[in-house]
Amino acid sequence: MQLVVDYWRVAVMFAIGGVLIYLAVKKEYEPTLLLPIGFGAILTNIPGSSAIGEHGFLTILYRAGIENELFPILIFIAVGAMIDFGPLLRRPFMLFFGAAAQFGIFATLMAGLYLGKLHGVASFIPAFTLKQAASIGIIGAADGPTSIYVSGLFAPELLGPITVAAYSYMSLVPLVQPPVIRLLTTPEERRIHMEYQEFAVSKAVRVLFPIMVTLIAGIIAPISVGLIGSLMLGNLLRESGVVDRLSKSAQNELANIVTLFLGIAIGSTMVAERFLQPSTLFIILMGLVAFIFDTAGGVIFAKTLNLFLKRKVNPMIGAAGISAFPMSARVIHKMGIEEDPTNYLLMHAVGANVAGQVGSIIAGAMILALIH
Amino acid sequence: MNEIAEGWRVSGIGLLSVFGVLLLFYVMLQVLMKLFPNKDENDSH
Predict the structure, then answer these.
(1) What averages of pLDDT result for each successive group of 10 residues across chain A (372 residues)?
(2) Buried b (16+ CB within 10 A) or exposed e, B17-35
(3) In angstroms, what separates the C-alpha of A218 from chain B's closest C-alpha?
(4) Which residue of A93, A103, A208 is the best one to mutate when testing the B interface, meaning the one whose CB has the most B CBs within 10 A?
(5) What whole-number distance in Å separates Cα of residue A304 and Cα of residue A31?
(6) Distance from CA of B7 to the nearest CA of A (A)
(7) Residue B22: which of A96, A200, A212 has the nearest Cβ?
(8) pLDDT tens for each residue of chain B, 45 residues long
(9) Helices A255-267 and A70-82 meet at what angle, rounded to 10?
(10) How near does any CA of chain A get to the CA of B1, in Å?
């Protein structure tokens, strides 16, 4: 009987792996990660698989890069080398949207803890600990490496479902954000034009920005140095203009190799008996809640600012403060064009979007610093 | 302290800290832009 149950679970995990591969191949939802995660899940759940276990290559990869947090850090170097902070440097004000849109992380953390109160009423409802709830909330950072980094430290047993939820919702931003934004804004608000002035930013500012951000964040929260420091190292490679080979390697070879290893190693955590739990469903659901709260937090913050500002901001820009770059900025721009074909919000949205990248890392670091 | 109370503490301080740190980045950027204005108008990198 036990054998039948085990094979049933294995079949479900094969199906889940297949769905992830389908989403990657057919729908092109975050294919660079969902494809290796899906295949990793299949490799892991084949009965007697040599890919896992003491000498399995997936176990070796997991220990080499996930357990010690190396892979997310390396991914951040690559991301930093890819990001042009120019739109943010021209409009530093956008930083505040990058902060407001982290609201979902903390709202989901609390939702996770209150959910635990229902555990006594219905035992299938998981009673998440503070560290687990914080790891689930981080899905709202819309930032895969930060989610992996925090949950790797706080809740490694939930790493698989948290990573799958984080990357799935990041690819579903075009479906998740627009209804929330429409619900919270009027057509008049969505038609607000924002003036955009393109001007050059000096090289000194571009080079000093990553260094100063690392120093400030590091002095305030030393635990953030690994995350923010690697992102800013990548950006310094890009902006210095003197290590073009390193910058290009970080953007291409490093990003590609580490993404492959990261994906397949995450897939190896999706072992049937651990993954097929009610908690997985709740994590997927709460990930959606986190994205909704993030979007709402950004929009409501922008609307609140408009009560005091003479030159109003388009409240949709607030929703671009999540870290899903550049997906969220494109969504906001498209929504602006739909309301008014002459309304170009792209550069403002990109500014808020890269601010969200910084904001999500700071939020992750603060959670690591505040929870012992 | 129970986990709910600890959660409120983490969320309150956490969100305020994110705003605080990004406010510092904002001030730092304003200072940098003042100290190092772009002189080469062609550099729109």
Answers:
(1) 71 94 90 92 93 92 90 94 93 94 94 89 88 93 88 91 86 89 94 85 95 95 92 96 96 95 91 89 92 94 94 94 86 92 91 94 93 84
(2) bbbebbebbbebbeebbee
(3) 11
(4) A208
(5) 37
(6) 6
(7) A96
(8) 688 999 999 999 999 999 999 999 999 999 999 999 877 654 444
(9) 140
(10) 12
Q: Inter-chain contact A95–B30, Cβ cutoff 8 Å? A: no
pTM metric for this prediction: 0.89
Count other Cβ atoms within 10 Å, centred on residue A70: 16
Hey, is A269 helix, strand or coil?
Answer: coil
For B:11-40, CB contacts with A below 8 A are 11, 13-15, 17-19, 21-26, 28-30, 32-33, 35-40
CB burial string A200-217: b at 16+ within 10 A, e below: bbbbebbbbbbebbbbbb
* B16 contacts on A by Cβ (under 8 Å): none
pLDDT score at B44: 46
HSE-CB of A203 using CA atoms within 13 angstroms: 9
